[in-house]
Predict the structure.
Amino acid sequence: MTMDYYEHIGAYVRGEITGEDKRDFEAEMRRNPDLKESVEYFDLVVEALEASVQAEAVNTLSQIDQNAQNGHSHQVHLSAPKKVIPLYLRYAVAAVILAVIAIVLWPWTDRGTSAEKLYATYYQAFPDFENATRSGDATGDFEMIRSRAYTAYNVQDYKEAIDLFNEIPDGYAKEMNDALYLGIAYLEESQWENAAAEFKRVADSDSEYAIEARWYLGLATLKTGDCMQARSIFTSLHNAGSDKSKESGEIADKLKC
């Protein structure tokens, strides 16, 4: 982590990042727990520095008031005034302190990787290779709904995709890949329990998407807080020698339940 990293955080805290840049930064915070934690640390350090300056002012005013009550208002002897730290310098100091904290604590944080960090590291939405090409060729009411659902998914309009996928009746050839993509849309909207339910339905089937569904089920289980179950899922994926064997083994090793 470089000083530029912390300067960017400082710019966000100071309100200097606006518009699209601010939205991008906040989206990255939602994806990256380490960045979110750094912003929170920065806020705390700045608050502590500002509180220190305010405490010095209160102490000075208290001394003046005490002298006035003692009848010595004309003999107020103040210590040499302390230099007030400019606001920009306080932010710079905060950045340095934050960098030191990160350097000191970094070796310890890696001893037990959090579920949040693992999710942020390994999660990636499943690309819609198969259905992107067929989405414009649908006929029939429910096929048209399915087509629109995949179109919404492809443009990352996950709320719309969820609504449309759920309009397809289970009895109307609702395919396992529909459930997989619905589950991922739920993940993107932070609906962990709903996502896990869809992934389990696919993972328990003989679908060609069963392995992918089990992988995403493990990630969804990380978010629901069931660490032991998540480790069990990733361990079984690793032992099965699946396409996700390497990543699954890494997560199982790093999880500290």
In short: The mean pLDDT is 75.
